[in-house]
Design a protein that fits this description.
With 367 residues, the protein is of the alpha/beta class. Helices cover 38% and strands 16% of the residues. The protein has 13 helices and 14 strands. The structure holds pyridoxal-5'-phosphate. The site of pyridoxal-5'-phosphate has 15 residues, from helix 4 and helix 5. Pyridoxal-5'-phosphate binds next to helix 4 and helix 5.
Length: 367
């Protein structure tokens, strides 16, 4: 059996270092917003190339606190891709703002900058990009539009830790960025965790207070904040895993290249390759497209290969977002009907990749 992702193996590679940090943490006697979080925030900001990082409880909170910190709320519009994980959209509506869905480019799966301008109205306040599946968005045209219309640019980096656009890392390409360290992400904790990166000092101080009851100083509250702190215990683990992130991303790259070089089946469309126009890809997911996707998934499972679908139902077809339901998103619907994510992770072997490749090359629609 080739699992989609062997999380246990991913973490056990660092058993000794993680255990040591957890023991240090236990013995510190300081369990909330202490040295572990402080260290990790400093190291992650440095890694992303930003001035600041704020650890929070999860990726959804990171997204929604960013929107709140910029004063975006009731009746404001935020432009966002129509094919993203639901958390990106939830963060917008949680603030009372309106998600305005923009279709992606079919080959990159990322928001199509050319479609954005037509969706801007006097109520638009921000563009929320998502570096989906690990590939950076084409930021120059997006930042140009943001300048032209005085919009904020936010990044959802939950799938793209370490990806670059030209000479900068994601997390440092707009006004503020949200990360998730959910266990299965390229940089994953042992539970829920997240962070925000940014360069603006005033907003940094506001976010730092917002995550901690709106308090900048003990028992003094500037805002009606929330409790969304990054746990020390997760920061202790993330500090170890951050050191290996680039190495892990390079292994993902190696396996993705192997797939792209060797999968050859006219029924299957491969994802676009890395490197065009300054985009980079850290292969959080290796996503192919195929008609009759469920049939291919069953065929692979039958050959002992586990795959997943990211994602089966588009936002505008979800019961929770009935108000967004219409027929204006054919590309998004096509993507949701055709995508299949192959196993990819730093702990798989080249033999696994070859087995998956072989199975795909032998696949015929009428088996
Ligand atoms: C995982 C993910 C999130 C949410 O992160 P959580 O930590 O699970 O809240 C947000 N956006 C995208 C694109 C994600 O993949």
């Amino acid at each position: 059996m080739i699992p989609f992702l062997d999380l246990k193996q991913i973490n056990l590679r660092h058993e000794e270092e993680i255990t040591q940090n957890l023991v240090d943490f236990l013995h510190s006697g300081w369990y909330i917003l202490g040295k572990q979080v402080e260290d990790f925030e400093k190291q992650f900001a440095e890694y992303c190339g930003t001035k600041y990082c704020i650890g929070v409880a999860n990726g959804l909170d990171a997204l929604s606190l960013i929107i709140r910190a910029y004063g975006i709320g009731e009746g404001d519009e935020v432009i966002v891709p129509s094919n993203t994980y639901i958390a990106t959209i939830l963060a917008i509506s949680a603030n009372g703002a309106i998600p305005v869905l923009v279709e992606p480019n079919l080959s990159s799966f990322n928001i199509d900058p050319e479609v954005i301008e037509g969706k801007i109205t006097p109520r638009t306040k921000a563009i929320m990009v998502v570096h989906l599946y690990g590939q950076s968005c084409n930021m120059d045209p997006i930042n140009e539009l943001a300048n032209k219309y005085s919009l904020k640019v936010f990044e959802d980096c939950a799938q793209a830790h370490g990806a670059m656009y030209k000479d900068k890392k994601v997390g440092n390409l707009g006004d503020a960025a949200a990360f998730s360290f959910y266990p299965g992400k390229n940089l994953g904790a042992l539970g829920d965790a997240g962070a925000i990166t940014l360069n603006n000092e005033e907003t940094y101080l506001k976010l730092k207070a917002l995550r901690n009851y709106g308090s900048h100083q003990k028992y003094e509250n500037l805002y009606k904040g929330v409790n969304s702190r990054l746990d020390e215990i997760h920061a202790a683990v993330l500090k170890v895993k951050l050191k290996y992130l680039d190495e892990d991303n390079n292994l993902r790259r190696k396996f993705a290249e192997e797939y792209s070089r060797n999968i050859c089946n006219p029924l299957i469309t491969l994802p676009s390759v890395e490197g065009e126009s300054g985009l980079s890809h850290v292969w959080h997911l290796y996503v192919i497209r195929v008609n009759n996707r469920d049939k291919l998934q069953a065929y692979l499972l039958n050959r002992g290969i586990q795959t997943l679908i990211h994602y089966p139902i588009p936002i505008h077809k979800q019961e929770a977002y009935k108000e967004l339901n219409d027929d204006k998103y054919p590309i998004s619907e096509k993507i949701h009907n055709e995508v299949l994510s192959l196993p990819i992770s730093p702990v798989m072997s080249i033999e696994d990749v070859q087995k998956v490749t072989e199975a795909l090359n032998e696949y015929k629609e009428a088996f």
